[in-house]
Structures are given as C-alpha cells and as structure tokens.
C-alpha cells in the first residue's frame, strides 16, 4: 500500500516563475492583510518601540523631598546599568536558567515520547489521545495555575491531605520545592502542544521510508531511533527554542502561585521583576529596561542554540 | 482581601476556599495588566491639574469615586441628600492589586476620577507623581478639628493638606480568655511577659498550641510592631530622604521575634490564610496582636469560637506604658485634575465624619474611623456577643489615642514591604536571623528611591 503512495506530503517544489498579481487581486490581498498589519503594528511593534524609548528615560525630581515638580530626561543606558547592578534581578536569571536546564529536556523528552506513542496506537484512538494530550494547552495559563494551586495548597488540596493521612508531609510550596511545582504546571500545559508540533513532523515522514527500514530488518525501536528521530529534528529544534523562550518569560504560573506561597519573591523571574517594578514601584522606565534586557537575553539564547545545532549539522 | 480596605493582602502560605475565587480574579487582572506593561505613557507628571470650574446655580455636578470598598449604600445616602452633587462609585481592584496602577495611568493621561481611596502608606507615592490635589487653597483647614490628629497628619506634606483621612487600623490584642484560663496565664502587659506566656502555653498544651503566630511574609504587620517600638524608618533632612530601617529599635523587635521563632514558641504561618484560620478554629492559637479590622475576619472565619474572645492592649516594651501602633489606613483623596475640588472635598469630609456614613462604612469592616471621638458617637462602641458581650473596641479606642504620631511612610513603601517579605521568608526558611536582613532591605529601599530620581541616603 505504501509503495503506491507518492511522497505527496513533502513540500511542493517551488514554482519557477512568479506570477504577476492582477490589480484586483493585489487590492484584495492588501485589504485582507490590512487588519493583521494594523494589529501587528499597534499591538506589537508600537509597544516594543515604546518600551525601548521608555527604557532610555529617567525622572528627575525637585522641591521638598522631591515631592514637587518632576521632569523626564533622556538618561542613556543608566536604567540598564541600574537593572544589571540589582543582585535580585541577576538571581532571577539564575533561577530561570536552573529551571530551564531541568524543564526543557524533560519537556522535550515527554513531548517526543507522547508523539511516538500516538503514532503507534491504532488510528481509531489516535484522535482521542491527541485531543486529550492537547487539551491542557487550551486552558489559559492563569487558570491552569489556579487549578494546580488547589492541588498544592495544604488544607485545600486532596493530595496533600491524602499523603498527610499516611504520615507523609508534602510541601509543594516550600522554599526549595515551589520552583518544581511551577515546572510541573508548565509541563502539564505545554507538553501536549509540543507533542502536536512533533506529531505534525512525524506525519510528514514518507511511509515508504519507514517501509524500507522495516524491509531492511529494523524493528520498531530501531525505526524510531534511527529513522524517525533524525527526521523530526527540525520539530525538536523548534520546540526547544519555544521552551527556552517560554522559560525565560515565566510569569503567569509563579505570579498566581505567589498568592499561596511565601517563597515566590517579587523578583522571582525576570518578568515578575519587571512587572513589580512597573506595578508596585510605579517605575515604568526601569521596568522597560528590564523587559528589553529580557528580550535581548531570549534572542541571544535562542539564536545561539539555533547556530549551535545548524553548525553541527553542516559538519 | 475581598471588600477589605486596609491590609495589603498577606501573601499567605495558603488560602481559604472562599477567598480563592477572589484571588483568581485578582490574578487574572494582574496577568491582563502585564500585557500593557510597556504601553504606559512616558511622563511622570499628571496630564491635567486641578482647577475649580464655575458652578452656576442649580447646576448638577457629577463626581467619580474610585474605590475597592463596597460603599455604594453609603454613597446612596449622600446622593439622596445632595441632588446637586452626584457621586458615582466605580469599583476598582484593591490598591496594591492593580487599583493604584489604574489611578497612576489615569493621572498621567489626565482622566483620573475626582475622588479615590488612597491608603496612608501609599500617599507619599502619590505625592511623587503629584497625584493629589492640594486642598489647602480650598479651605480644608476648617475640617482639621473633626479628625484624629495623627490620621490628619498623614495627609500633610510640607505646610499643605493633600487628603482627608477616613479610617485606620489601631493595633491591640484579640485573645481567647478560655484558653488563657486553661493554661493559667494572665494577659501579658509587657513583651517579656508575652514571651513567658508563650513558653507556658507550649509546655501546658504539650506542644499542641501556641500563644501567637508569626507571619513569614507579612511585613506590613511587622511594620506595625516596629512602629510601636519607635522604629521610625524614614525622616528628612532638607530635601533629602533619610532611610533608617536598620536601626536599633527595629533590630530589637526583629531579635525578639527571632528568639521566639527559634525556641518554637510561635506558629510560623501567615495570618489570614486558611491554615491560620484553621489554627484559630482549632484553638491552636490563643491570641493575636493585630489591627481592629481583624474583628470581622476572626468572627467570620471562626464562628465556632464565639463568646471566647476578648481584647486588650498591645504588650509594651516599657511596663505601664500604653504605646500602640497602626496597621493599615485609608484616606479619601481628591485626585489631581479634578474640575470640582470644592465639591469633592465636601463629599470626602462627609464620607469620613457623618455619623450615618461612619456607621455604614464601619459595618463594612472598613477600619477605625478617622472621625475624632467616633468611639462614643457611633456603633463602634457596641457590645458584641462574639467578643464575650464586651465592648471589645475599647482596647482599640485606647490604642488609637496612644499611637506614635511621628511615623512616616517611605514613598516606595509597597516595594520596601515586598523586599522585607522576600527577605523574612528566606531568612525563616534558611534559619538565619530576621534582623540580619534589615541591612539588605534598607539598601534595596534606597536603590528603589534613587531609581525614582529622589535624593536619598542611609541614616
């Protein structure tokens, strides 16, 4: 059966010559794309530019105890210097780095394992399992964190009280444990999403390739390891980059859990730090600088990872 | 948290089921707010300044009132009696849960409401952005005599008055007289006696119960205790702020609680959390030194302990003294940009001093009235069956009269409290001392203020 199938699922060959659009077509294209670009500019580009601009400003105060008139002046990079001098802000990066070193591999391994499992179950059930695994991604991060905090908070959580009854005292929200309780929520939320990206790539592997491996005598394990795994490499790279960025931007889960744990500080992650700078301390300029630093770090990490894997490949 | 004006919600170790939903809404609001983080506008100056508009005879003035306290019924009384000055209540998230940020944003773009609730500890921060109307030109001085002096003083900056006080949180002690009797302890008059009582309760309860608890991340409560000990964390020298958190008076308080924690004499648990209320319900806690607005919280969360509570003053550092402190407090401010400051001020004054209004808001659990002599004139002096048929507010009335009025708040108080929360909970988790964290908290507070362009130095 698979021999009959042509590799139709692989990308179509690029067309040689670009066809010129007719004028009505071009107008339709512009009209149809305009809403996207308007929102992209207003909700994405403009805030980023504004944040960069804000991060370069500082307020100077005058009068009795600085409570009089204030002026906003251009301050160059001094907000950045201020942010980088703050030990708590640097420690936040250490925390998300530790989180990422553990969380990203676990996430990718779990997502890959789930994807392979889906491939091996019968077609009848694949849809059901795929939907089930993907379902948590449909729950907004804040809601997911709230649901999980029900399971973490002593006195409310059935898990904690169940273990309490048999003499095991679990503390999901302690000084050393709360980071991993957050990791658990993130894993629950995003494993299914990452799985879906990998499944999509698995589906694009031509069946005759698998067939020929089987003919060559490879069992299911070997087929997975030596044929499928190398072929889903692009999907793995994509999910790893997503996970690295997601880890650095960690916000919803710790912010929600901070309501129930004493050990999530106001500078727990870089994003929380920027949030509190803006919303507790009303210092938008410093908050913007912290946000821009975060974006830069995420960009640098993602691009260096991409560079690393592509270089290895070309060898 | 819900409907409660004064305490910044304690970041507790656990939360009761009932409170959970409110918490979710707050968290949602927070997450939604994060999206607009960088969209705030640039200047720190208000978009519009207060000027009185002419009001012709028979013209109806509309005022907006932003608050997180459900005061509509009280405002209805005003609206009925004053058809020419109609006040519209706009319920916003609690101050530190996003309410103040909403006000700051509105101030920047020049569409702030005429009237808003602003807590005492947040007033200097509002002064920093010129967010409050100077009420002195509108004759606010004539109201001074109607208010408790120290509360009035919270709104005075330099020579001018910037807000009208509304309610506060004098601190005293709620205690279980049945448990005190059971363990054979008398009401502790001093902190050393309090420590001895804590030891007795531990021993006689066979390590089941505690006299008191310590909240690892509720520095606003600790601030009250430092206040009682004359902590005075901030003062000024000319145009410079002087920050003095790491001082001997505060260290004394920190060391005291440190020792009690180390000797396992305290339940280490944030107050107002489900675990804490459970301890209250189970009689695992025999007393709590706290603000008067805790009366409703204890009553609502531990109805099974009805008739077992009484109140008395805070333990003292000097025998025979009556020095008290305050935790929480709110003013009704006329925000910058109002077109009708005279009318807004008139309403704010009515809201804080009219007997009907005071009774109405006190019943909501608003806290101690700023109205001078309110105790005898309002329902505050009523006896309560939950508090063993005593006029339990008497202790708070005495406290209110003995609050150290020299206390001032930092213009970055919220951030400083958070630094202290972070430092205290870390110190308790790692078994290091509370007083050792004060240096770091002070440095961070100074950094915060520098980052806001203020002249500041350590004492």
Short structural description:
With 315 residues, chain A is mainly alpha-helical. Chain A is 70% helix and 3% strand. In chain A, a hairpin with an 8-residue loop joins strand 1 and strand 2 (70-74).
How are the SSEs placed, and which strands pair?
The complex is a heterodimer of chains A (315) and B (459).
Chain A: H1 23-54, E1 57-61, E2 70-74, H2 78-85, H3 87-120, H4 123-138, H5 141-152, H6 158-165, H7 178-203, H8 207-215, H9 220-231, H10 233-248, H11 252-257, H12 270-279, H13 284-314
Antiparallel strand pairs in A: 1-2
Helix pairs in contact in A: 1-13, 2-13, 3-7, 3-10, 4-7, 5-7, 7-10, 8-9, 10-13, 12-13
Chain B: H1 17-34, E1 61-67, H2 72-81, E2 85-91, H3 99-109, E3 115-119, H4 123-128, H5 149-153, E4 156-157, E5 160-161, E6 164-176, H6 177-182, H7 191-204, E7 212-214, H8 219-228, E8 234-237, E9 240-243, H9 248-262, E10 266-268, H10 274-281, E11 287-291, H11 294-301, E12 309-312, E13 326-334, H12 341-353, H13 355-363, E14 368-369, H14 374-377, H15 394-401, H16 413-430, H17 438-451, E15 456-458
Parallel strand pairs in B: 1-2, 1-3, 7-10, 9-15
Antiparallel strand pairs in B: 3-13, 4-5, 6-11, 6-12, 6-13, 6-14, 8-9
